[in-house]
Amino acid sequence: MASKKPDRLSQYIDNEPLLWKDRKRILGLPISFTRYSFDQNKFYLKIGLFNIRKDELLLYRVLDVKVNRTFGQRIFGVGTVTLLTADQSTPNLEIKNIKDCERVAKALSNIVEKERDEKRVLGKEMFGAAGLVDTEGVEHPIDTMI
User: How does pLDDT run across 100-117, given as a tens digit for each residue?
Assistant: First the structure.
Protein backbone atom coordinates (compact mmCIF):
# COMPACT_ATOMS: atom_id res chain seq x y z
CA MET A 1 0.00 0.00 0.00
CA ALA A 2 1.11 3.50 -0.71
CA SER A 3 1.67 5.67 2.32
CA LYS A 4 -0.75 8.53 2.71
CA LYS A 5 0.55 12.01 2.20
CA PRO A 6 0.09 14.17 5.32
CA ASP A 7 -2.89 16.44 4.97
CA ARG A 8 -1.90 19.98 5.87
CA LEU A 9 -5.48 21.23 6.06
CA SER A 10 -6.35 18.93 8.95
CA GLN A 11 -4.41 21.03 11.43
CA TYR A 12 -6.69 24.00 10.71
CA ILE A 13 -9.99 22.19 11.07
CA ASP A 14 -11.69 22.46 14.46
CA ASN A 15 -13.17 19.21 15.66
CA GLU A 16 -14.97 20.58 18.67
CA PRO A 17 -18.02 18.61 19.75
CA LEU A 18 -21.41 20.19 19.16
CA LEU A 19 -23.11 21.40 22.32
CA TRP A 20 -26.58 21.60 20.75
CA LYS A 21 -28.33 20.85 17.46
CA ASP A 22 -31.92 20.98 16.27
CA ARG A 23 -34.01 21.51 13.17
CA LYS A 24 -36.59 24.13 12.37
CA ARG A 25 -39.84 22.47 13.33
CA ILE A 26 -43.16 22.48 11.49
CA LEU A 27 -46.13 21.87 13.78
CA GLY A 28 -43.62 20.79 16.43
CA LEU A 29 -42.06 18.10 14.20
CA PRO A 30 -38.45 18.30 12.92
CA ILE A 31 -39.33 17.77 9.26
CA SER A 32 -37.68 20.79 7.62
CA PHE A 33 -34.29 21.04 5.94
CA THR A 34 -33.07 23.91 8.12
CA ARG A 35 -30.57 22.71 10.70
CA TYR A 36 -29.08 24.70 13.57
CA SER A 37 -26.14 23.82 15.82
CA PHE A 38 -23.42 25.42 17.90
CA ASP A 39 -20.21 24.55 19.67
CA GLN A 40 -18.05 26.59 22.06
CA ASN A 41 -17.02 29.12 19.39
CA LYS A 42 -19.42 29.14 16.45
CA PHE A 43 -23.08 28.93 15.51
CA TYR A 44 -23.83 26.90 12.37
CA LEU A 45 -26.80 27.24 10.02
CA LYS A 46 -27.40 24.73 7.22
CA ILE A 47 -30.36 25.15 4.86
CA GLY A 48 -31.48 22.97 1.98
CA LEU A 49 -31.77 19.49 0.56
CA PHE A 50 -30.43 19.68 -3.01
CA ASN A 51 -28.90 23.14 -2.95
CA ILE A 52 -27.29 23.54 0.45
CA ARG A 53 -26.37 26.87 2.02
CA LYS A 54 -24.10 26.87 5.06
CA ASP A 55 -23.36 29.82 7.29
CA GLU A 56 -21.35 30.08 10.47
CA LEU A 57 -21.25 32.87 13.00
CA LEU A 58 -18.53 33.52 15.56
CA LEU A 59 -20.34 33.66 18.89
CA TYR A 60 -18.28 36.49 20.33
CA ARG A 61 -19.86 38.74 17.66
CA VAL A 62 -23.36 38.32 19.10
CA LEU A 63 -24.65 41.59 20.59
CA ASP A 64 -28.06 40.54 21.87
CA VAL A 65 -30.10 37.36 22.35
CA LYS A 66 -33.92 37.53 22.26
CA VAL A 67 -36.63 34.91 22.71
CA ASN A 68 -40.04 35.15 21.08
CA ARG A 69 -42.88 32.65 21.52
CA THR A 70 -46.20 33.24 19.81
CA PHE A 71 -49.34 31.54 21.02
CA GLY A 72 -49.12 28.96 18.21
CA GLN A 73 -45.48 28.25 19.04
CA ARG A 74 -46.34 27.74 22.71
CA ILE A 75 -49.02 25.21 21.75
CA PHE A 76 -46.43 23.13 19.84
CA GLY A 77 -43.67 23.63 22.44
CA VAL A 78 -41.33 25.66 20.24
CA GLY A 79 -40.05 29.23 20.03
CA THR A 80 -37.77 31.57 18.11
CA VAL A 81 -34.40 32.85 19.32
CA THR A 82 -33.13 35.98 17.57
CA LEU A 83 -29.44 36.85 17.55
CA LEU A 84 -28.51 40.47 16.85
CA THR A 85 -24.90 40.36 15.68
CA ALA A 86 -22.00 42.47 14.48
CA ASP A 87 -21.56 40.07 11.56
CA GLN A 88 -21.94 41.67 8.13
CA SER A 89 -23.47 38.67 6.35
CA THR A 90 -26.05 37.90 9.08
CA PRO A 91 -26.75 40.97 11.24
CA ASN A 92 -30.05 39.49 12.43
CA LEU A 93 -30.24 35.69 12.70
CA GLU A 94 -33.54 34.03 13.61
CA ILE A 95 -33.37 30.48 14.96
CA LYS A 96 -37.00 29.61 14.21
CA ASN A 97 -39.30 27.05 15.81
CA ILE A 98 -36.85 25.17 18.04
CA LYS A 99 -37.51 23.14 21.17
CA ASP A 100 -36.33 24.47 24.55
CA CYS A 101 -35.80 27.94 23.09
CA GLU A 102 -35.33 29.58 26.49
CA ARG A 103 -32.62 27.08 27.53
CA VAL A 104 -30.88 27.52 24.17
CA ALA A 105 -30.98 31.32 24.50
CA LYS A 106 -29.55 31.16 28.01
CA ALA A 107 -26.77 28.78 26.92
CA LEU A 108 -25.93 31.01 23.94
CA SER A 109 -25.86 34.09 26.15
CA ASN A 110 -23.47 32.42 28.60
CA ILE A 111 -21.19 31.16 25.82
CA VAL A 112 -21.15 34.62 24.21
CA GLU A 113 -20.05 36.20 27.50
CA LYS A 114 -17.38 33.54 28.01
CA GLU A 115 -16.06 33.99 24.47
CA ARG A 116 -15.90 37.78 24.87
CA ASP A 117 -13.99 37.39 28.15
CA GLU A 118 -11.51 34.95 26.56
CA LYS A 119 -10.95 37.20 23.55
CA ARG A 120 -11.05 40.36 25.70
CA VAL A 121 -13.66 41.99 23.49
CA LEU A 122 -15.91 44.63 25.03
CA GLY A 123 -19.52 45.17 23.99
CA LYS A 124 -18.85 48.77 22.99
CA GLU A 125 -16.14 47.59 20.58
CA MET A 126 -18.67 45.30 18.93
CA PHE A 127 -21.20 48.12 18.54
CA GLY A 128 -18.54 50.09 16.70
CA ALA A 129 -17.87 47.12 14.43
CA ALA A 130 -21.57 46.88 13.65
CA GLY A 131 -21.79 50.53 12.59
CA LEU A 132 -23.81 51.54 15.63
CA VAL A 133 -21.53 54.30 16.95
CA ASP A 134 -23.25 57.54 18.00
CA THR A 135 -22.33 60.46 15.76
CA GLU A 136 -23.88 63.60 17.27
CA GLY A 137 -27.52 62.58 17.58
CA VAL A 138 -27.76 60.49 14.42
CA GLU A 139 -30.34 57.73 14.76
CA HIS A 140 -28.80 54.28 15.16
CA PRO A 141 -29.75 51.51 12.71
CA ILE A 142 -30.46 49.29 15.73
CA ASP A 143 -33.18 51.71 16.92
CA THR A 144 -35.08 51.35 13.67
CA MET A 145 -35.00 47.52 13.84
CA ILE A 146 -36.60 47.33 17.27
Answer: 999 999 999 999 999 999
CATH code, 60: 2.30.29.30
Residue 4 lies in a domain: no
Q: How far apart are CA 14 and CA 33, in angstroms?
A: 24
Residues 6+ apart with CB under 8 A from 45: 34, 35, 36, 53, 54, 55, 56, 57, 90, 93
- Kindly state whether residue 144 falls inside one of the protein's structural domains: no
| Containing structural domain, residue 74 | 17-129
Domain-located, residue 44 = yes
CB 84 within 8 A of CB 142: yes
Domain for residue 41, yes or no? yes
Structural domains in the chain (count) = 1
The pTM for the full model equals 0.77
